[in-house]
Amino acid sequence: MNNPCHHNGFCIPIDDRINLHRFICIRKEGYRGERCQNISKALNKYNPHQRKIILKKIASGYNTMTIDVQQPFNILFTQIPDGDYYLTVLRERFSPSEYIQTQVSPKHRCHPVLDLFNETFRLYKYPRLVKYYSLLCRQDSQLICFYDENCM
């Protein structure tokens, strides 16, 4: 009998005394599916962070603005003139024709990361300090965001 498992998968009969057509396939790495018929998707491409800056003023007498963004994104920070950053959009998947309505709110203010650490952590050099970023989220479940000026 030919191997019913694709891509050199290993065929193991469940009970060949009862039925020759009941089996399972042991898949090789990089394949999936009941018969190893599908190639697993993998992310092999590195896409460096792209920072886009759009400068726009709110007209006098208005409190809203519209921004038309052509490139896909999953996170959007808004920086207001006093220098504070606000998390205004956060999503898992990009939708090309999506209309997003959001607002800048004090509860979405992102604090500078160094303001959140104690004096001991502030003395750490940059690569070492980054290892402790997740600690901030574990210590404060209400923390929505923070930013590191080195990464913005």
Could you characterize the architecture of this molecule?
The model has no long low-confidence stretch (mean pLDDT 82). A hairpin with a 5-residue loop joins strand 5 (75-79) and strand 6 (85-90). With 152 residues, the protein is α+β, with helices and mostly antiparallel strands. The chain has 2 domains: 1-45, Laminin (Ribbon); 46-152, no CATH class. It is built from 4 helices and 8 strands. Helix content is 13%, strand content 19%. The strands form 3 sheets. The protein has a 4-stranded mixed sheet. Strands 1-2 form a two-stranded antiparallel ribbon.
Which key phrases capture this entry?
elongated, alpha+beta, Laminin, about 150 residues, two-stranded antiparallel ribbon, 4-stranded mixed beta sheet, 2 domains, EGF-like domain
Short characterization:
13% of the residues lie in helices and 19% in strands. It is an alpha+beta fold and 152 residues long. The protein folds into 2 domains: 1-45, Laminin; 46-152, no CATH class.
| Count of domains | 2
Q: Which shape, going by the Cα principal axes?
A: elongated
Separation of the first and last Cα atoms: 60 Å
CA-atom Rg in angstroms: 26 Å
Structural class: alpha+beta
What is the secondary structure topology, with strand pairs?
Layout: E1 10-13, E2 23-26, E3 31-32, E4 38-39, E5 75-79, E6 85-90, E7 109-112, H1 113-116, H2 119-122, H3 126-130, H4 133-139, E8 146-147
Parallel strand pairs: 7-8
Antiparallel strand pairs: 1-2, 3-4, 5-6, 6-7
